[in-house]
UniProtKB/TrEMBL annotation:
Domain Ribosomal protein L9 positions: 13-40
Gene encoding the protein: rplI
Pfam families associated with the record: Ribosomal_L9_C, Ribosomal_L9_N
Entry keyword set: Ribonucleoprotein, Ribosomal protein, RNA-binding, rRNA-binding
Keyword check for Amino-acid biosynthesis: no
The protein's name: Large ribosomal subunit protein bL9
Organism per entry: Phyllobacterium pellucidum
Gene Ontology MF annotations: rRNA binding; structural constituent of ribosome
Organism placement in taxonomy: Bacteria, Pseudomonadati, Pseudomonadota, Alphaproteobacteria, Hyphomicrobiales
Membership in a protein family: Belongs to the bacterial ribosomal protein bL9 family.
Length: 189
């Protein structure tokens, strides 16, 4: 099915482009959400008549998204989760969890705006990109830790999965004396 895009859609095209998409994508997503019109002569004329209005609305949305992105860029959000000693989470942190975390801080964000290839399954600092508008992105850091104290230590740069962090001991190499006895025994044999 050919449609006329009413806004920029990533991996598809710019506003005003006529693109061919699968019927289900057009019927179930683009048309109901008002992101596209069926490509026919009547709709092409309708679009040309509304083009200036649509561009103004798009520019307004973009400026709002840019204002939010300026506030969000570089900001760190802390998520407290239970995890094993090696840093593996019991469960994972998904796009929904990240959206809820950012929304709790007073920002309006939908889970579909969080760009995350795979759920996060380890503690640590993780960079996450937020697509606030098709042309505006923000980058935030999600600090996943077992406790608030650990979150503060991670920000300072500590590795919380090492033996020292877990048990409070230094990882020392085995002494040479341990091996000297075996080597002498082998020479005598």
């Amino acid at each position: 099915m050919e449609v006329i895009l009413l806004e920029r859609i990533s991996r598809l095209g710019q506003m005003g482009d006529t693109v061919k998409v699968k019927d289900g994508f057009a019927r179930n997503f683009l048309l109901p959400q008002g992101k596209a019109l069926r490509a026919n002569e009547a709709n092409k004329k309708k679009f040309e008549g509304q083009r200036a209005q649509l561009e103004a609305r798009n520019l307004e949305r973009k400026s709002e998204a840019q204002a939010i992105a300026d506030k969000l860029n570089g900001k760190t959000f802390v998520a407290i989760r239970s995890a094993g000693e090696t840093g593996q989470l019991y469960g994972s942190v998904s796009t929904r969890d990240i959206a809820d975390l950012i929304t709790a801080e007073g920002f309006s964000l939908n889970r579909n705006q969080v760009e995350l290839n795979l759920p996060i399954k380890t503690i640590g600092l993780h960079k996450v990109v937020l697509a606030l508008h098709p042309e505006v992105e923000a980058s935030v850091t999600i600090n996943i830790a077992r406790t608030a104290d650990e979150a503060e230590r991670q920000v300072k740069g500590e590795d919380l999965t090492s033996a020292q962090a877990i048990y409070g001991i230094e990882e020392a190499p085995l002494s040479d004396e341990f091996f000297d006895e075996d080597e002498e025994g082998e020479e005598n044999a």
